[in-house]
């Protein structure tokens, strides 16, 4: 075989720009997906997945849990982060190293150095579940990005503008894809369309999403 001396140098993982400060890293987490799924299993054994209620009284369709120093919760009193699981009253499980490391590495690739998440929301979607367009803005330091990891069944991500009225782009997300958004994109509206039924070798009939954030200072 002849080597092509003029081939472009290896440029590392693929990066698909979505907007200024926002990028998709396709399949970036595939190599550690089994570690991430094992980590999720150990977290939800201690802090079981549950359906939370919005301040408006709607039960969310995704099941949720958290790990890390802070966990995102919602109930009739509002959206917030807290250090304890409201179901057990105990601190959330520690963030598994495999999850934290992947988030720091993905953020760096997207241009956000020194991202050390203190909160990891675990979302589990079964067919029919969705998450409507929203902004992530319960965090104290909005200069820190968001890292979002997809595992299992494919789902369509909606990535909109800074105003709810701006029509979102639709981005199909597959197993192992990572989305990072921050900087000028930090407050963009986003969500996921209804999950279609299917079976994935890694997760069976569901999709997991890990949303990693720096919630405190
Ligand atoms: O499941 C997803 O891809 C998005 C999750 C999300 O936006 C959130 O948990 O705030
Ligand atoms: Fe979000």
From TrEMBL:
<keyword id="KW-0560">Oxidoreductase</keyword>
<keyword id="KW-0408">Iron</keyword>
<dbReference type="InterPro" id="IPR004574">
    <property type="entry name" value="Alkb"/>
</dbReference>
<dbReference type="Pfam" id="PF13532">
    <property type="entry name" value="2OG-FeII_Oxy_2"/>
</dbReference>
<dbReference type="GO" id="GO:0035516">
    <property type="term" value="F:broad specificity oxidative DNA demethylase activity"/>
</dbReference>
<protein>
    <submittedName>
        <fullName>DNA oxidative demethylase AlkB</fullName>
        <ecNumber>1.14.11.33</ecNumber>
    </submittedName>
</protein>
<dbReference type="InterPro" id="IPR027450">
    <property type="entry name" value="AlkB-like"/>
</dbReference>
<dbReference type="InterPro" id="IPR005123">
    <property type="entry name" value="Oxoglu/Fe-dep_dioxygenase_dom"/>
</dbReference>
<feature type="domain" description="Fe2OG dioxygenase">
    <location>
        <begin position="116"/>
        <end position="216"/>
    </location>
</feature>
<dbReference type="InterPro" id="IPR037151">
    <property type="entry name" value="AlkB-like_sf"/>
</dbReference>
<keyword id="KW-0223">Dioxygenase</keyword>
<keyword id="KW-0479">Metal-binding</keyword>
């Amino acid at each position: 075989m002849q080597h092509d001396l003029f081939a472009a140098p290896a440029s590392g993982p693929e990066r698909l720009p979505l907007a200024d400060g926002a990028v998709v890293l396709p399949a970036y987490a595939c190599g550690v997906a089994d570690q991430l799924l094992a980590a999720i299993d150990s977290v939800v054994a201690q802090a079981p997945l549950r359906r939370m209620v919005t301040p408006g009284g709607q039960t969310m369709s995704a099941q949720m849990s958290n790990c890390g120093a802070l966990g995102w919760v919602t109930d009739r009193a509002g959206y917030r982060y807290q250090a304890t699981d409201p179901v057990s009253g105990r601190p959330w499980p520690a963030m598994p190293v495999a999850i934290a490391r992947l988030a720091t590495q993905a953020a760096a690739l997207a241009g956000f150095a020194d991202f050390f998440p203190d909160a990891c929301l675990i979302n589990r979607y079964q067919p029919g579940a969705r998450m409507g367009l929203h902004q992530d803005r319960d965090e104290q330091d909005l200069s820190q990005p968001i890292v979002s990891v997809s595992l299992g069944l494919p789902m369509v991500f909606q990535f909109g503008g800074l105003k709810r009225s701006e029509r979102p782009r639709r981005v199909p997300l597959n197993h192992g894809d990572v989305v990072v958004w921050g900087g000028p994109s930090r407050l963009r509206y986003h969500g996921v369309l209804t999950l279609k039924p299917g079976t994935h070798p890694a997760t069976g009939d569901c999709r997991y999403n890990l949303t990693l954030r720096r919630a405190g200072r």
